[in-house]
Design brief:
- The chain has about 70 residues and is mainly α.
- About 70% of the residues lie in helices and about 0% in strands.
- The two termini are about 25 Å apart.
- The model has no long low-confidence stretch (mean pLDDT about 90).
């Protein structure tokens, strides 16, 4: 899922080129923007809280039934 650019060198020219890419390519701009929103939603407080609660209950079940969880 492409949601941004990774810059090898943080230099003005490379940043300017990536900005120019976005300005000149509406399809790329929309794709990156849409994917970036989806990525950001994965890290919202609501999503994080739900994951914590889910993990808590998984651990409780594992403890109660002597299940060994592997990562």
């Amino acid at each position: 899922k492409f949601d941004g650019f990774i810059l090898k060198n943080i230099c003005q020219l490379e940043i300017a080129n990536r900005i120019a890419d976005l300005i000149n390519n509406q399809k790329l701009r929309k794709k990156i923007g849409s994917n970036a929103v989806k990525t950001a939603r994965q890290y919202s407080w609501d999503t994080y809280a739900k994951k914590c609660i889910l993990n808590y209950w998984i651990m409780q079940i594992a403890i109660n039934y002597n299940i060994i969880l592997k990562c």
